[in-house]
Amino acid sequence: AHQPLVLGIESSCDETGVGIVRGHTLLADAVASSMEQHAPYGGVVPEIASRAHLESIVPMIELACERASVKLHDVDAIAVTSGPGLAGALMVGVGAAKALAFALDKPIYGVNHLAGHVAVDQLEHGALPEPTLALLVSGGHSNLLRVNDISSDIVSLGATIDDAAGEAYDKVARLLGLSYPGGPVIDAAAASGNSVAIDFPRGLTSRKDLERHRFDFSFSGLKTAVARWVEARQRAGEDVPINDVAASFQEAVVDVLTRKAIDACVESGIEHLVISGGVAANSRLRVLAEERASAKGIELRVPKRSLCTDNGAMIAALGSEIVARGHGPSSLDFPADSSQP
Ligand code: KG4
Ligand code: ZN
Fold first, then answer.
1. What is the ipTM metric for this complex?
2. Distance of CA 240 from the midpoint of ligand 2 (Å)
3. Ligand 2 (ion): which residues have CB within 5 A?
4. What residue stretches are annotated with the Gcp-like domain (predicted)?
């Protein structure tokens, strides 16, 4: 059967992404990032992100079409991130998608950014088994999800009660004097550090915490513990062993993420785990998750790095699935919803 050609637009944070897919086949993925413009501030500045989206959105649409060798009027449906994310940033993508849908007279689908992070795996590993468990770890989110139906039925089992995992990487990098974004630099520093040098706390893993927060995460206590440890060293006039701090911090994050994800699989009898979002690029997370998953007979899927971070292909992949399962399009007046669950 002829599968529809779906163009996806992503603009929820600092990446302007446009992807084109047919079924589970990725035809093009064009991404422009304003990351470098935010670096001096140690985090994403919403106003800068919105302006960068405005500048990049049309060039990325053109680039994606060129790379996929398709003309805009060949596109069968348009999908766009409707939330969650930064309000002003979302509005640029949603506005562009609506203009395209209106001008081309094509159906439009407003879709959820987090579901997109999970759906993108299909472009690499084929149809997602359902139910599947998903660990979504990025700069803005840390969620454990039970995916019953990627197009319409995703249940949250747990989430961070304070900082997101990527946010913790970014904040710890900052206090170690490393650059932004912190994930890749801490990952690299940790490679030559000792991960058992410092015993940093594992958030929400005590018996008492587990009663109320079985599958929730907390990383702000860990960040504070790292800050205290570094300050104590500096007060004593000693050098801070950055690589050991990075490795020990990373081990604490990755230990809790993988432990809870695998426990959730075992408790719910689900044999498939997808890990996605920017932090899924982390090398230690990939190794430990594979170790722990295979010990329990769980099939682990982690998309390649370029698909883990924000991109338009993930939105096109989700849109394609929604179309394939026969859901109707959104009406042209759907809003950008920054706090969408
Ligand atoms: O998914 P993403 O690109 O954007 C959001 O939706 O947030 O994730 C960005 C986050 C940043 O916090 C960044 O530090 C983190 O992903 N990150 C990593 C690595 N690469 C990126 N964290 C740990 N290890 C990495 N290798
Ligand atoms: Zn994201």
1. 0.98
2. 32
3. 138, 310
4. 26-316
